[in-house]
TrEMBL record, chain B:
GO terms for cellular component: ATP-binding cassette (ABC) transporter complex. It comes from the Bacteria. GO terms for molecular function: transmembrane transporter activity. It is found in: Cell membrane. Gene3D superfamilies: MetI-like. The keyword Transcription does not apply. It is a multi-pass membrane protein. This is Amino acid ABC transporter permease. It comes from Oceanobacillus halophilus. GO terms for biological process: amino acid transport. Residues 21-218 form the ABC transmembrane type-1 domain. The keyword Transferase does not apply. Belongs to the binding-protein-dependent transport system permease family.
From TrEMBL, chain C:
It is found in: Cell membrane. Residues 2-239 form the ABC transporter domain. Its main location: membrane. This is Amino acid ABC transporter ATP-binding protein. The lineage of its organism: Bacteria, Bacillati, Bacillota, Bacilli, Bacillales. Keywords: ATP-binding, Cell membrane, Membrane, Nucleotide-binding, Transport. Pfam families: ABC_tran.
Amino acid sequence: MPNGLDIPFLIDTFFVALTGVPIAMLITIVSLLIALPLGFLLALTRINRMPILNQFSRVYVSFVRGTPVIVQIFIIYNSVPLLLGTIFEKYNINMNVYEVNPIWYAFIVFSLNTIATLIEVFRSAINTVSKGQLEAAHSVGLTTAQAFIRIIIPQTLVVALPNICNATVNLIKATSLGYAMSLPEITLKAQVAANASYNYIEAYIAIFIIYLLICSLVEYAFKRYEKRLRKYQIAPAA
Amino acid sequence: MEKYFDATYIWESIPALLPFLKVTFMVAGLSVLFGSLLGLLLAIMKLGKNKLSQQIAHGYTTVMRCTPSIVLLFLIYYGVPAIFINFGINLNDMSSAFFVVITFSLQFGALMSEVIRSAYESIDKGQYEAAVSVGLSNTQAYGRIIFPQAFVVALPNFGNALLELMKEGALAYTIGLIDVMGKANLIIAGNYNSHALEIYIGLSLIYWVLSIMIEQFFLKLEKIFSKGRKDLKTA
Amino acid sequence: MLEIQNIHKSFGETTVLSGVDLQIGKGDVVVVLGPSGSGKTTLLRCINFLEKADKGEAIFGDIQVDLHQASKKQIQAIRKRTAFVFQNYNLFNNKTVLENVTEGLIIGRKIPKEKAIEIAKNALNKVELEDKYTAYPAELSGGQQQRVGIARAVALSPDIILFDEPTSALDPELVGEVLEVMKTIAKEGTTMLVVTHEMSFAKDVANKVVFMDGGVVVEEGPPKEFFENPKEERTRKFLRRVLPDDFIYHI
Ligand SMILES: Nc1ncnc2c1ncn2[C@@H]1O[C@H](COP(=O)(O)OP(=O)(O)O)[C@@H](O)[C@H]1O
Ligand SMILES: [Mg+2]
């Protein structure tokens, strides 16, 4: 292809790939909604050294952070049908495990992955919010639950926000691996479009631009939000 | 197609995969080497006074942070030969390792530039002032006082960047590199796609142990270098 | 021995020093007083070239330099004759106490290692840290750190030591030990230029007090005269604010 880029194809692919954005965003949002509360709760079990749950979280985080996402995807993608198949057989449920919409696998994989990241994010954030805050809340008569909801969690979120932003950007990028689950997200759509004409460069430039746009927007939104939060709240000294 | 779970496949896959760590290490090692050099250059640009080169370096880092590895990998794999063919250089027969190293050097460089920049900025400028006030030259102040302290601050972040590189590197199989990941896929294909789960579990165990080893290694290093210097570690 | 003439320094719009003159003789202890923000730190930093003055001259024994455009060589020459004690100590965090003191001797002054260690140990013994040679700064209290800072300066046997509020980062109960050390080296004849808010030090140890405000020297003189009989209204106002009522009579 010494004659330069096929610009019309690039533009076409850009719009084809754009139709994959909603799925990528859906996965991102669902995974975050699942992972944020679970990550926070498991972070608490780590901090309070709750027996069993603490050890479980530790091993879990270590495994997820120690292995490539693509390998995690392959493990889930290959094990869930096996599990479901056994269950369906046992209870005589008449359903084909291979007809499950791959988006369910995506929800599972990316939630599990993000939970591990957020456990660590929240763990260090909670540690920076001083113990004095809880004691002060108790001293004015708040219960521990009230103290958490009204004092600790809001402060933790401010501290954790930059890292949550990172986790979100990483999550969006990781959805590009949805191809491994035949998920029609941004990357797969562009690949399919390119397969017909071998215009791979154009296809990858198109999705490169899309990811750049989405991730910059997300980072910008987080920065704006962080600024607003900091206006009302004095960030606790790290 | 057999679809039952057989754990013996896990234990059998591991010795078959391990030799291919050599390829993983070689590609990662070269990427760390070139990426660190690039990161140093970018960090110097970011810390320098020239506004334009600051913006270029920051822009580059943002672009890298926003690009999924697999997209960058394919962009390099198809793009670099297409650019070079315009100069009459044919790269189509280059080994895929070549493109993998380019990709991850570019990515690692962006990560390292932030590691170096933040380590440098974490050192109080009073350290430099004290150094020149006792008669050290500019170069001596940096070489003997600033850099050794920045190095300790950078160590854990360098370790994290290395782990990140190793995990993202697993995607190199998509352009045909036969490292541990690539070999795992070959084994599965050889089994007519049966027992993929067991092989991937074996593979994940290899990565997991490797990560723990790297992590422990850096914890040790950190301990050695920050011996008795508490505020360096918290800086 | 050290003469500073007509130093000017601005940071962007804010003028910090507008024509400061200073004479310091050999063995003098000159204390600089002044409200916060009056440019005391900036003055010291300009003398040691940690800040580049916009204008001004320093006459240092036989060398005379333009503070605005000194050559690298001149800067090194002046720095060889001066030492700086910082408000927040600035000990080298990656070096032990002993290494903090030898660093300037071995690397800056090219003194052989053996000899440098001997000098450093002497200086550290003087500030009563003979049991801390191998400790790292992070393992010391603030008072101990500042005493290392002073030892580091003394060991260089400079013509003058510049002190920038050496006790103001310390807990009150640690101030005494540092002032004691400063008194000792002053008695040994060390030339010192000291910015401080410790009025008793100014009164007991200094042989000249300089009062700065708004980037100029408002008044200067021997401590007795300065405290008992200040000439300028601005000085009186400042002293009323910072001195306990019975300061003059008590000390
Ligand atoms: N690097 C700098 N940049 C801008 N302004 C500065 C800088 N250093 C000092 N200043 C300003 O110069 C003034 C004098 O500062 P300083 O010399 O530290 O006063 P002092 O030591 O008497 O309290 C202050 O208003 C301070 O804000
Ligand atoms: Mg000051």
